[in-house]
Amino acid sequence: MQTVIARYQFELKPRTTFSIPSVLSLIMTAAFLPLFLFSQNTSHASEKANDPNIIYILADDMGYGDIRALNPECKIATPHLDQLAQGGMIFTDAHSSSSVCTPTRYGILTGRYNWRSRLKSGVLWGLSRRLIEPDRETVPSMLKQHGYYTACVGKWHLGMDWSLKQGGFATEQSYNKKTNPGWDVDYSKPIQNGPNSVGFDYFFGISASLDMPPYVYIENDRSQGIPTVTKAFFRDGPAHKDFEAIDVLPRITDKTVQIIEEHAAASKEGKPFFIYFPLNAPHTPILPTPEWQGKSGINAYCDFVMQVDDTVGQVMQALKKQGIHENTLVIFTADNGCSPAANFKEMTDKDHQPSYQFRGHKADIYEGGHRVPFIANWPARIKAGTHSDQLTCLTDLFATAADIVGAKVPDDAGEDSVSILPAMEGKADTPLREAAVHHSIRGAFSIRKDHWKLELCPGSGGWSFPKPGKDNLSELPAIQLYDLNHDAGEQKNVQAEHPEVVKELTTLLQSYADRGRSTPGKPQQNTGEVDIFKAGKSAQSMKKPAKKNTKKKS
Is the dihedral of CA 272, 107, 431, 332 positive or negative? Predict the structure, then answer.
């Protein structure tokens, strides 16, 4: 009390006079002000204590059919993912926004389709510049405003700005296996515009896919050691001498568990955490650790899926050990379907179908390219053992997080994001989303509404048959239309029989492109031109490859 009085006496102006009642009133105010503030803070903390911890676990190149809880015929043991599903909700009609890595990750964090950004096709590389635009709202930046600690652990693959030795920044052209293998980068300098610039308090992981140099761990904005040797996990490139691809999944798993342990107590006191945990597995290089090698009895990819399952188990065990499992939302999903690098023949020979009943795989416009596993577990709010048939896109993770914390989403954020919280809580009796747009590796478009799926390209638009640039597409229809209620495997193109559906869906997709958004709100601007027919026209114009002359020279 004496300290308080002295402070107020010091602030009195010369010749200021006070009555005894006023002085007493001042003293009483000073005395009770800390109690009032404490009460207010306690009330606020109590309110925030109801906000859940949120963890997004993103598998890399994992098929819908690779989890037993989703595929009754799955031949891979996935006990932890099965348990996650049994304790929560399975979304049976969930999709990545793209059938490859980078675009989907952009959509998850921004709630915006990637084709609105500068990335119209393909993926970024390990030395690519940042993709997420400056000042764009993201899941972590939004949650930080609501008192969350935010961390990203794992595979970034959204670009960051690496400084070059001669000045300026690295680009996609900074890596060429033969002419420019990435040694022009100054790995001692801070990395600019990485995960910390889009709302993450903490980052630990790798810059891109594990088959893309540089092969070095990054913590926040610094390389953890300077690359001094060349290593190849498919592509040759600069590497730290101690960096080994096989160690990445265990290391990022340990780091995630550590963050849970360090922030568990704070989360109980009104400081929840958000962890974005993008795995490097089961993407190439397919390198399960020794204790998992051969465990599936099928092949290395299936062994790696089992290790991914164990990773999920370690995360859930940490949550339960810390007593925060009940009020933590854990979402497990994948960035796209299974890659052909997994060796589909080896798996089908053992009666395992990574794409389940769906056609195609990673890179394709077909369902196997973008229909992904999606499990939501939140004991406090999600009823155990439930499922939802709601059409869902991974861009929806933005609006869902905003809905959970009561954040108002501005018009220039989350343009393609719809909250699925009502579905999680069993309160969605009608479709939450009007339609969903999908995108192949070559930039081909597809739009899905109700049971109809329109694909604006001939063939797969990706890597499976009929493949652009390899197979004859010139005689195929320029567009494809499938009735998924009767043809989930996309075998019968019915575009000729339903021109009215083709027109309706084409018009809807064009409106989404023109308005810069697919949700209600003020129209927004895309970055660069968006031509929904361009990729399809390009594929349609390709001629049948000439047959190689197999005759031996005499």
Answer: negative
